[in-house]
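FW: tagging you since you asked about this chain on Friday. Here's the raw sequence from the shared folder, copied in full. Didn't touch anything.
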Amino acid sequence: MKGTRAASRYAKAILSLAKDKNAAKDVHDDMQDISKTIAGSRELKDTLASPVVKDSLKKSVLLAVFKNLNDITKNAIGLLLENNRIAILDVVALQYVKMYNIDNHIQEAVVTTAVPLDHQLEKVIMAKVKELTGAEASLKQIVDESIIGGFILRIGDLQYDASVARNLNNLKRRLKDNSYVSKL
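HL: got it, structure written out here
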């Protein structure tokens, strides 16, 4: 990923400042919002990367899109603009979130489902995460219709597969190895 080394340095400095000001959680929330918004908007990403668009316009666009930013986050955006690094804002935000999660012992749980999760299912998944790891985790959702139903939960190197596709494959394997069924 382009600019990862520089983004890590910026994120580390922002996290250090946020900790000093007791605003690390607020900045974390801002950075998550920034990361998701830029990832979901090709136009915003292109605007930030464009050398033709003036920095003042980029700043006003960012402040209009993200209205309730913490002062530390606003100053970080200003610094990135000043140093001609605003194009890596999304990478800085991702790096900040990763560093914050490591500092606060928050793991990322990736859940794959056939349909988008509703609030109640999200609670069930988070309870399963707590049961498996004994710790809190942030939840990232992936929708994959090929698992048919159920879910696949990954936390670090731990995987819990409760998908219908896996159960069907297991059943298929057992029937294939069954001496009575194979004679039919």
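FW: Residues 94 and 158 are 22 Å apart (CA to CA).
HL: agreed, and The chain has two domains: 4-103, 107-177.
FW: great, closing this out.
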